[in-house]
Design goal:
By secondary structure, the protein is α+β, with helices and mostly antiparallel strands. It has 12 helices and 21 strands. About 25% of the residues lie in helices and about 25% in strands. The strands form 4 sheets. It has a 9-stranded mixed beta barrel with strand order 12-13-14-15-17-18-19-20-21. A 6-stranded antiparallel sheet has the order 2-1-11-10-9-8, sandwiched between helices.
Length: about 500
């Protein structure tokens, strides 16, 4: 495996300069870049994979590393390299790493009983199975629960977890359990006095050059652990490369190699389907995959995929409904491609690949006829589940469409591009106000608008139908935890 900085003196000089430039804090170091052929990967195979991913139209970003070098990278505009992205359950793998570091520092053991950390939240008469639950059971999703404990905003999450029935002996029953990951986060905070986010800052994030990570917290101020971390695509790739290098980064052992080996190994069985990458066993907050690989992953297709046998890492963010589909494409297109030595330069194919990667984009809304262009018009809405109170539509003379909406008492102005994504801030349905890019297309009876919340997997499509003095609004989100189609709302012109 090649290290991208081999000289200790060069490393020291580089870090010293970075420290001086940033007032004492080292700036992010990007991964080294190379061509696919230099690292033994045919550009044609990558081009074929990217073409297949592009047809799905729900990919956000893709990065491929071989021998520690980035050989291909692309973002589907308006997604971008500089933006953090929600990891969802890929956060779990980072929480597991925090546990491993705390173990290495002697602050806890995987054999510690969970109850010992929270005596103030223990039931009056804990069951024998609860008493037997250990940190290792949290890590491998074998807590003995039949159902997952809840995490409501008005509850103490650790107390709810410990009060939840434990019908099975811990270690004997696999149940994917985000609350179990939260308990890991709570334990790390208990023994270190820091949130997992803060604890990992000097131990993992800063050494890897991961800048400005954010992590949601519980009502008790504890990092949510099982979700809520947001970092950039290249940061995901760096984490994968650290795992591939068994915890070593440049000339430092950031995470004990023994912990990486244990965490990414099969610790428990979780199914028997031979062609499912969700049935190959589970480690300490890592999924085992086919073909000797393992991964951290999150809802809707956030992947950190590590292929030790191929010395490769793949980072993907997306908004998928079928997460197995992307893994199948990786196996089909890339697995046979990795070669042990450098290949002859394939300049034409490399140029085709680079052209494809630079021109990726989320699909724009499509027009189906001559748009109706009214003047500026405002519509009021009766009470509705989306909390939309009023919408103003205003076409501009320069071709944009301005949508001003009052939602739950707050006004927001969204400028939508025609054939281009325009940045702004927006909200819709259950999404919080946040950065978004907007594009629109005109129709004979109205407009279609896409709102791309590019720090998340979510893309909302609004269909605005003008019917006399009425505005009929239908909307849906590309992916959702419960339902992606929102209730139709009808407004009347003021």
């Amino acid at each position: 495996m090649k290290n991208h900085i081999t000289s200790k003196s060069l490393l020291a000089a580089t870090m010293a300069v970075a420290m001086l430039q940033s007032g004492g804090v080292a700036r992010a170091q990007n991964l080294p870049r190379s061509t696919p052929e230099e690292q033994g990967v045919p550009s044609a195979n990558i081009l074929s994979l990217v073409g297949a991913l592009d047809k799905i139209d729900t990919l956000n970003s893709f990065m491929l590393l071989r021998h520690g070098h980035v050989v291909a990278e692309g973002w589907w505009t308006p997604y971008r390299a500089t933006a953090r992205h929600s990891l969802y359950s890929l956060s779990k793998s980072f929480t597991s790493t925090a546990v491993g570091l705390a173990v290495a520092e002697g602050k806890l053991s995987v054999d510690d009983e969970v109850l010992k950390f929270f005596p103030e939240h223990a039931p009056e008469e804990p069951s024998n199975n609860l008493k037997a639950m250990r940190v290792s059971d949290l890590l491998r999703m074998s807590t003995g629960h039949q159902t997952e404990p809840g995490r409501k905003p008005d509850e103490v999450w650790t107390k709810v977890f410990l009060a939840h029935p434990v019908p099975f002996k811990p270690g004997t029953h696999f149940l994917y359990n985000t609350s179990a990951t939260y308990m890991q986060s709570a334990i790390v905070q208990k023994v270190t006095g820091q949130t997992v986010l803060d604890y990992l800052q000097s131990r993992l994030f800063a050494p890897l050059g991961i800048e400005d990570p954010t992590w949601e917290t519980s009502p008790q101020g504890i990092s949510t652990g099982g979700y809520g971390l947001s970092i950039r695509t290249e940061d995901i790739a760096k984490f994968g490369q650290l795992l591939l290098q068994r915890g070593k980064w440049q000339d430092r052992q950031l995470v004990p190699a023994e912990w990486i080996d244990t965490a990414t190994a099969r610790q428990t069985s979780n199914g028997s389907r031979p062609f499912s990458d969700w049935d190959q066993g589970y480690g300490y907050q890592f999924w085992r995959c086919r073909h000797g690989a393992y991964r951290g992953d999150g809802a809707f297709g956030q992947y950190c995929l590590v292929l030790p046998e191929k010395d490769a890492v793949i980072a993907i963010t997306s908004g998928l409904r079928d997460m197995q589909q992307v893994l199948d494409l990786v196996w089909d297109h890339l697995l046979p491609a990795f070669q042990p030595a450098a290949l002859a330069t394939a300049r034409d194919t490399q140029e085709q690949l680079q052209g494809k990667l630079k021109n990726l984009s989320v699909r724009f809304p499509e027009s189906d006829g001559t748009p109706a262009i009214p003047g500026r018009k405002t519509y009021s809405f009766p009470s509705n589940d989306l909390k939309v109170e009023a919408v103003t539509i205003e076409p501009t003379t320069t071709g944009e469409l301005v949508l001003t909406a009052r939602i739950d008492g707050e006004d927001q102005r969204i400028t939508c591009g025609k054939g281009e994504w325009l940045d702004g801030r927006a909200t819709w349905a259950l999404l919080k106000p946040q950065v978004a890019a907007a594009a629109y297309a005109g129709h004979s009876d109205g407009y279609t608008i896409k709102l791309c919340f590019y720090e998340t997997p979510f893309i909302v499509t609004l269909r605005l139908k003008l019917a006399g003095e009425k505005l009929i609004v239908n909307s849906e989100t590309n992916v959702a935890f419960i339902q992606n189609k929102h209730p139709e709302i009808v407004g009347k012109a003021q």
